[in-house]
């Protein structure tokens, strides 16, 4: 329940602080006095969007703070899930800065509007003429029936299975599409894979083949160069070997004279050994070199095959082709395995369909039992609210689809008068009738579920007299187990409240301000008398007001 509300610099309110009590609270005031401002401020605390027009003084920030007693609301899990500090007396603060930016806090922890809106669902439910029209919505009608049927836990279980079922269906459809697409390409992919496999490619092969091709294609030039090099190295009188030996012999004569000469001798000896090794390599290469046109043709063909494949697959090298070959192999392997995946997930879908059907049947049977109870209680309450001939016909229509709350649709039919046919609630019920039906619904729901604080915003529009008294009695009865607010113009309802607040508007200098005041017993008598007779209060109006209050 809301225990206090403070407002600073909002609309026509400069500063306001008010405490609320449990039970049934009445809010009255002239049209335009500021009742909608109070609701607007509460709406901001509940997470509604704000703008600069909310600021009374555009140079200062607007601050709205509400304190709630949530000790009986079982909200600790919500606070833990949202990483918020839990307090039995929880404070929500909303600030609107002159820049237009808005900030929200729960127990001094900053939160976003979505978190605030999620929490507000457990705190306050505001019902105006506009919200009353929601009663025509099928989802709202189902929630009413399911509350009486005790279906909420069962529906939660159903929704978990439904979510998993829809996920499996999406995977199944994706696999079927993948299978269809892959099937169209399977023959071509198989051809491409076989072509690459037949090429018998090896990493680094292209570079080796290109080197071999250069050798085989230039064998005469290479052999001529190798033989000439060997001749220069081995010429008997002027060859490199002969000259190296001459140098080595000359240095050997002086090695004993200095370490420096010894080092030079060792170096020329090393060169001689290295050159001997090079000469032998030249000899081996020359002997291995053959003019082989057939091998040249084979190398040329293999290179051309590689070049064609590189172009065809837009690859940079043989390693790229080998990766494409592996990918094609995996694709074809996946296609072989996809049939097993489709069968496995289809089996899971069948299991979930059976489970959904089982739970949906439980939901349906509970609803079948709840509908007569709801209809009977609605009729009982509405008869006392001036609708003696009201009738309801709630039909559950089976659906082939798995809907969010079961496997059926609802036709909520209504007749207000004898001799009139049933019609859809939203089409045949008047505004006044809808208000009374909504009040009856809330009164019934209060017995079956833990409702948040309820604010009825002129739900009594279009009724008066004895019906208004009975509406007040119903709200009073509801307030025994929950906090109820009623914004009303009817004295019969205002008199039923445990506490009574008046919203008034006044002019202070050049400024207009609204205020909310808790009335004393004497002030209540005056307020209700004024509601009965207008500005000029008569003695009979005062006496009538006292009678209503008693």
Automatic annotation (TrEMBL):
ATP-binding as UniProt keyword: yes
Coiled-coil regions listed: 321-355
CDD domains named among the record's database cross-references: ABC_RecN (cd03241)
Keyword Nucleotide-binding: yes
Keywords (A to Z) from UniProt: ATP-binding, Coiled coil, DNA damage, DNA repair, Nucleotide-binding
InterPro entries noted in UniProt: DNA_recomb/repair_RecN, P-loop_NTPase, RecF/RecN/SMC_N
Highest rank taxon of the organism: Bacteria
Domain RecF/RecN/SMC N-terminal positions: 2-506
Family, per entry: Belongs to the RecN family.
Function (record text): May be involved in recombinational repair of damaged DNA.
Identification of the protein by name: DNA repair protein RecN
């Amino acid at each position: 329940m809301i225990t206090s509300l403070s407002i600073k610099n909002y609309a026509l309110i400069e500063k306001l602080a008010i405490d609320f009590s449990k039970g049934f609270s009445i809010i009255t005031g002239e049209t335009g006095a500021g009742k909608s401002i109070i609701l607007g401020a509460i709406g901001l605390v509940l997470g509604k969007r704000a703008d600069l027009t909310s600021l009374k003084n555009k140079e200062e920030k607007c601050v709205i703070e509400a304190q709630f007693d949530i000790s009986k609301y079982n909200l600790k899990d919500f606070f833990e899930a949202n990483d918020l500090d839990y307090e039995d007396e929880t404070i929500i603060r909303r600030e609107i800065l002159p820049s237009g930016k808005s900030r929200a806090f729960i127990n001094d922890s900053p939160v976003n509007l979505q978190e605030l809106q999620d929490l507000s669902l457990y705190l306050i439910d505001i019902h105006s003429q506009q919200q009353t029209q929601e009663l025509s919505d099928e989802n709202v009608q189902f929630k009413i029936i399911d509350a009486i049927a005790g279906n909420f836990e069962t529906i939660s279980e159903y929704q978990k299975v439904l979510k998993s079922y829809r996920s499996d269906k999406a995977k199944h459809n994706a696999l079927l599409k993948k299978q269809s697409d892959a099937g169209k390409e399977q023959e071509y992919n198989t051809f491409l894979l076989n072509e690459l496999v037949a090429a018998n490619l090896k990493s680094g092969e292209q570079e080796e083949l290109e080197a071999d091709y250069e050798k085989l294609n230039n064998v005469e030039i290479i052999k001529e160069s190798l033989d000439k090099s060997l001749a220069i190295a081995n010429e008997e009188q002027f060859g490199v070997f002969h000259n190296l030996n001459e140098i080595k012999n000359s240095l050997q004569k002086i090695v004993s004279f200095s370490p420096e000469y010894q080092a030079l001798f060792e170096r020329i000896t090393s060169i001689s050994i290295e050159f001997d090794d090079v000469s032998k390599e030249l000899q081996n290469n020359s002997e291995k070199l053959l003019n082989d046109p057939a091998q040249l043709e084979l190398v040329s063909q293999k290179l051309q095959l590689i070049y064609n494949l590189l172009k065809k697959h837009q690859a940079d090298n043989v390693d790229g082709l080998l990766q494409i070959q592996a990918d094609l192999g995996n694709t074809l392997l996946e296609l072989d395995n996809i049939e097993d995946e489709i069968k496995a997930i289809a089996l899971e879908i069948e299991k979930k369909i059976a489970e959904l059907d089982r739970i949906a049947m439980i939901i349906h049977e509970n609803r079948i039992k709840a509908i007569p109870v709801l209809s009977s209680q609605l009729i009982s309450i509405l008869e006392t609210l001036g609708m003696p001939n009201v009738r309801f016909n709630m039909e559950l229509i089976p659906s082939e689809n798995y809907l969010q709350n079961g496997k059926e649709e609802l036709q909520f039919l209504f007749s207000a008068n004898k001799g009139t046919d049933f019609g859809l609630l939203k089409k045949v019920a008047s505004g006044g009738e809808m208000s009374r039906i909504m009040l009856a619904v809330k009164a019934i729901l209060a017995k079956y579920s833990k409702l948040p604080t309820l604010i009825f915003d002129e739900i009594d529009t279009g009724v008066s007299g004895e019906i208004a008294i009975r509406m007040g009695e119903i709200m009073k009865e509801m307030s025994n187990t929950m906090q109820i607010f009623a914004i009303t113009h009817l004295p019969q309802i205002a008199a039923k409240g445990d506490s009574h607040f008046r919203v008034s508007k006044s002019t202070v200098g050049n400024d207009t301000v609204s205020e909310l005041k808790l009335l004393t017993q004497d002030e209540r008598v005056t307020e209700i008398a004024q509601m009965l007779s207008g500005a000029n209060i008569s003695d009979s109006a005062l006496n009538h007001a006292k009678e209503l209050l008693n």
